[in-house]
Amino acid sequence: MKLKSAALGAATVLLFGLGAAAPAAGAAPVQQGTADRAPCPETHSHPEISMGSTGTAVRHAQCLLQHGAGYKNVEIDGIFGRITDIAVRDAQSRCGVDVDGIVGPDTWWCLHAFNQ
């Protein structure tokens, strides 16, 4: 049990940064006013992406993860790497969708829901 708590703590620091509080598991996205909306331009393209994917869609997902869902350590670099994968899986768990690390239709919906 101690090992699981330590791993959870390490994952929290990895995803949310030192001194940041992790959103509660299963927490509903917070409704924000128009001025507070995440600065993630809509791409109108939501292809399936996963570990190893690169490009504009990955950058869009990373923006939604960082600015809407609170994963401050997700770098918006267009490369779907380890930290993006961990954040996607955590967001999937929070939204109640299949936790598989693949950003498909349900996960895109989830990521946009955090930014409403």
UniProtKB/TrEMBL annotation:
Signal peptide start-end: 1-27
Domain of life, per lineage: Bacteria
Gene3D superfamilies found in the cross-reference section: PGBD-like superfamily/PGBD
Species per Swiss-Prot/TrEMBL record: Streptomyces peucetius
Domain Peptidoglycan binding-like: 54-108
Keyword Glycoprotein: no
Keywords: Signal
Region (Disordered): 32-52
Protein name in the entry: Peptidoglycan-binding protein
